[in-house]
Amino acid sequence: QQGLYEYDAVSRLRDSQLGDERFNDIRNYIKRGKLWEAFAAGRKVVLLIDEIDKADIEFPNDLLQELDRMEFFVYETGETIRAAVRPIVIITSNNEKELPDAFLRRCFFHYIRFPDVDTLHRIVDVHYPGIKQNLVRAALTQFYEIRDVPGLKKKPSTSEALDWIRLLVADDIAPEDLRADPKNALPKLHGALLKNEQDVHLFERLAFMARRQQ
Length: 214
Hints:
Layout: E1 5-7, H1 9-18, E2 30-32, H2 34-39, E3 46-49, H3 59-62, H4 64-69, E4 71-74, E5 79-82, E6 88-91, H5 101-104, H6 117-127, H7 133-147, H8 158-170, H9 197-213
Parallel strand pairs: 3-6
Antiparallel strand pairs: 1-2, 4-5
């Protein structure tokens, strides 16, 4: 509903008690949502609905009519809002839960693969211009090795790589120190990469097995 519009009935009630003339026009108390703004733009715009899989389970179904017909009804004013120019609607999902088939039928699907090392290196350079390149190379090499460890419950993501590298810079970690003793310790500042107890225990077990083999 917030994506369409919000009706502030409390403010209207207050203004009616105070004798404010705004009370006579209910439109003064309707706040347009992003979907309304996109429909009313009068030109081609891009509407982003981010991480739809984190919304309530009925949210995708609630969008079906609006996105299919490119219109919705405003009950308070009795008007129908139609898109003058159909917007480009981009919807992202982290695949944390299944989306309804009826919703997916209306979508053109595109899977974004995890960036390769060169692409992630460029992403790091954008976020941290002027960063020591030898540290970035060493950190990314270890980062991809961590992602490739079998049995990880949650592989570290791009945002976690950025956070980890920022911490390495803040702690003035030298590139060679990342490889100081890789078989006997968790990754340095591993709390930025490993986000659940199961994965921490996995690396502890790997370190224990490595020590036994020495």
